[in-house]
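User: Run a structure prediction on this.
Assistant: Running it now.
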Amino acid sequence: MKIFLFAYAIFLAGVNALPGLSQLVSEDHDKPTTDLEVKANERFVDGIIVSVIEGLAQDIRDAGLDPINIDSVGAEYRLPVTDLFNVEALAEDVISTGLSDFVIEHINYGVLTSRLRMTLVLPRVFVGADTARVNGQLLGWEFNGSVSGSLAIVEIRVRIDVRINIGIISGVSIRSIDIDFSLGGVESNLNVNVQGSDLSEAINNFAGNIVPTTLANNRAEINELLEYIILQIA
């Protein structure tokens, strides 16, 4: 529904900005579209986009995904009849914040160019747990592991540049899209133990150094993939 509202707003703004089309839908065919009306249409579309993003943030909060505060949660599973496989898991004092804290750093929709430029940021997504552990048995082999500490993803930033086609019959469609995804960093302060071995240093290095570096080195390919996905679902 929110996406439909966004597309409808762009359609109306685009129609009103183009003299030939606006005269078809306006009662006053002799009245030209002024610069003030163009600016008003652009602000109208900008406002709709902001409302859509704010609605998405509210949907995340309403779903109970931000913030998350869990005192204790556990699960257990074992195969019926036999003990060939069984597993138990428990997590305590789990918290997560920041998933809905969208910040619109920049937004501009050009009615005459049918071009939308926007920068959207998630400043800090934080996940922490006092303890999370799992233990079980598989074909007589006992396994166990535990994790505690915190992980924070910092400055998830997406810059979007979209050019849009607008037609009375065809409606709104994407002509081209450029995406620039970047990550400010990952703050990993985890204590990880698997089968009695302390893997904390390796895991923290992987999350805090290798992952951000790999994303930066493959930035162009990641952007291309995101553009392809959006064009497929748009």
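Confidence is low (pLDDT under 50) at residues 1-5, 10-15, 17-30.
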